[in-house]
Design a protein that fits this description.
The complex is a heterodimer of chains A (251) and B (382). Chain A is of the alpha/beta class and 251 residues long. Chain A has helices at residues 2-15, 31-34, 41-49, 75-86, 104-118, 129-133, 138-154, 170-173, 177-190, 197-207, 217-243; strands at residues 53-59, 92-98, 122-126, 158-162, 194-195. Chain A contains eleven helices and five strands; from the N terminus they run αααβαβαβααβααβαα. In chain A, strand 1, helix 4 (75-86) and strand 2 form a beta-alpha-beta unit. The radius of gyration of chain A is 17 Å and the shape is globular. Chain B is 68% helix and 0% strand. Chain B starts with 10 loop residues before the first helix and ends in a 13-residue tail after the last helix. Classes of the chains: A alpha/beta (251), B mainly alpha (382).
């Protein structure tokens, strides 16, 4: 059962268009976008030992569910459901720490003060947006990331990074690129997986899966619900993938 | 107007400045496929370095003669007049930009982004935002170059005198300030975040000063800039290295090709403080361009180069128009059609409008000058 399921996921992620049960067609992205060499060994260990899987989502406005019709539709809640489906028989608990406009440095403080003490298996760390908005010095941003990741690793906690949201308007008004690129580098040097939310959302937008430039309230709610739902599903797949040490794009 | 020190205009300057202006326009339209052809995708430095360097060069050429003929006070006032024009241009662009943001905020306000990015926050306190904008402290995205240029020009009269009298001392001071910016965090502050300017003037002044020195102190620095095959090879090798690194940013398959130790050494490549890698990349590029493309190169006089050169000649107007057009192009892409064809279309149309404006100003100025056509100084050889 498990092996068949594993194959299904790999096929679904790698082929993108193949029929797969876990990821709805509209959410799918090319395998290249989901590739990561980094694994989540601490999550894997907990799973192997059958211990509860405690996950903390740390982030800014979008992690608090900005724009969705209901908080239960925000991606941390979806992640909880999807992880529970992927690891049946295991207790999965996703907790969300999100604050509007929090920079990486502020979140690192928060990590060290509160989150580390909770000893989750995994911190899903969504960051970079507020830093780009405030135009925080790139090296300060990098230092905060490295410090936060080191603090978590020191406590035997895995990390997965999530970068910024893509938006057709916001991309015109913000200089995201340097921060986005630096996150890729930070993830690589620290050996932690990075979820490329920006590229994934841009892909959905380009494919017409979602209208991110919607102007009426209803369509905007639909768009946000779609994004958060798909995000939660893909995140669960990425965590699953990284924890089981499988790679999406072995070609 | 770039009148050569020896009275002959160096078309290469106008050509590269014009090209930089085209690149800046194309790069400022988000999600634009045409942006792939611009300099920033092929090495560390981008059109900004070209623009600032050539601006320093052109300012020196334009004002050195005035300083010699009419003295410091007149030259300074001339520079201040230029600063005033730039300031007005900046305020104008700010108004345009604010109108765009207000429109976008009204029409697209999606809490999915608004709650997280709060880009329209300044509309909540317009009185503060306006004052801060007038003080150059509040600059929305893509509006960072003009304030940098303004601040650099304010200090320029002193730099010019120093460049003419004590070029080596000027270079030393400039490098010192650059190091202060890079290692002691000298920078001007912005509103509302209190972070530093995106283009730190204390760092970027170095490029402007190098441009100035190349223009008026070439006697002192000519030996250093002389063609040497080994230096040329080194510069070319560095450009290739830079291309290789930059390729790993854009081609996911190459992502892990940069060895970790090398990455730790070079990252982050810091645009705000004119990273040494960027500076070296620009200098290597300039060194090769200077020696490979001669001032009398045939292509500079060709029909194809003329539109670029015209834009470089009218750089201030074309630059401001380009910023405005990039806003407009973005709205078109988001509102109506964001297909590849539309991206190519708005890019070409925008450049065509920039060229049109440059020719129009050329023509207007030539009419202005016509009655005095006899004076050799005011007329460029066609």
């Amino acid at each position: 059962m498990n092996a068949r399921r594993a194959i299904a996921i790999v096929v679904a992620l790698a082929a993108g268009t193949a029929a797969g049960q876990e990821i709805p067609q509209a959410c799918r992205v090319p395998a290249g976008m989901m590739v990561t060499d980094a694994s989540l060994p601490r999550v894997a260990k907990r799973l192997a030992e059958g211990r509860p899987l405690e996950v903390v989502v740390l982030g800014s406005g979008s992690s608090a569910g900005a724009g969705v019709s209901d908080r239960s539709r925000a991606y941390p809640a979806v992640l909880q459901r999807e992880l529970a489906k992927r690891f049946p028989g295991q207790t999965v608990n996703v907790e969300s720490y999100a604050r509007r406009g929090a920079t990486a440095a502020e979140m690192t403080d928060w990590l060290e003060r509160e989150i580390v003490a909770r000893k989750p298996a995994l911190v899903v760390w969504q960051t970079g947006t507020a830093d780009a908005v405030k135009n925080v010095e790139l090296s300060d941003f990098g230092d905060a990331l490295a410090k936060g990741i080191a603090a978590l690793h020191a406590q035997d906690i895995d990390v997965m990074l999530i970068d910024m949201q893509y938006g057709p308007q916001t991309d015109a008004l913000l200089q995201l690129k340097p921060y986005q690129q630096y996150m890729q580098w930070a993830a690589r040097t620290a050996g932690v997986p990075l979820f490329r939310r920006h590229d994934v959302m841009e892909h959905w937008s380009e494919q017409g899966a979602v209208d991110l430039a919607a102007t009426n309230r209803r369509a905007q709610l639909n768009a946000a619900d779609f994004v958060h739902d798909c995000l939660g599903r893909l995140l669960a797949a990425a965590i699953d993938q990284a924890a089981r040490g499988r790679r999406g794009a072995e070609r | 107007m770039v009148e050569g020190v020896q009275g002959r205009r160096d078309l290469r300057l106008d050509f590269f400045r014009g090209l930089a202006l085209w690149f800046i326009f194309v790069d400022h339209v988000p999600d634009n496929v045409v942006a792939w052809v611009t300099l920033r995708n092929f090495g560390f430095s981008d059109a900004t370095e070209v623009f600032i360097f050539i601006s320093g060069y052109a300012a020196a050429v334009a004002h050195a003669g005035r300083y010699r003929r009419q003295g410091f006070a007149y030259m300074s006032l001339h520079v201040l007049h230029r600063v005033w024009q730039l300031y007005i241009a900046h305020v104008f662009l700010f108004v345009v930009f604010t109108a765009q943001i207000a429109y976008v905020a009204q029409r697209f306000s999606n809490p999915m982004y608004a709650d997280e990015m709060n880009i329209t926050g300044f509309l909540d306190e317009p009185h503060v935002a306006l004052l801060e904008a007038l003080l150059l402290r509040f600059r929305p995205a893509n509006m960072d170059v003009l304030p940098l240029y303004i601040v650099l020009l304010l200090a320029f009269p002193f730099a010019l005198v120093a460049a003419l009298r004590r070029p080596v001392a000027l270079l030393a001071v400039s490098v010192g300030i650059y190091l202060g910016a890079r290692y002691l965090d000298w920078n001007l502050r912005t509103y509302p975040s209190g972070e530093g300017w995106f283009f730190n003037p204390f760092a970027w002044q170095l490029l402007f000063v190098i441009g100035t020195l190349c223009a008026v102190a070439s006697d002192t620095f000519a030996p250093a800039m002389r063609w040497r095959p080994w230096l040329g090879a080194l510069a070319a090798a560095y450009l290739v290295f830079s291309l290789g690194i930059v390729a790993t940013w854009y081609v996911p398959a190459l992502e892990n090709a940069v060895p970790a130790a090398l990455g730790r050494l070079i990252y982050p490549v810091d645009k705000s403080n004119l990273d040494i890698l960027r500076l070296a990349h620009f200098l290597a590029l300039a060194y090769l361009a200077m020696h490979i493309i001669r001032p009398d190169a045939a292509f500079l006089r060709s029909r194809w180069a003329d539109p670029v050169i015209a834009c470089g000649r009218q750089s201030l107007y074309v630059f401001c128009l380009g910023i405005f057009l990039s806003f407009a192009a973005h709205i078109l892409l988001v509102e109506f059609d964001d297909s590849l064809a539309a991206q190519v279309f708005v890019s070409i149309a925008g450049i065509a409008i920039m060229v049109g404006l440059a020719y129009l100003i050329d023509w207007y100025r030539s009419m202005d000058r016509a009655p005095r056509a006899a004076s050799p100084e005011t007329r460029r050889p066609a």
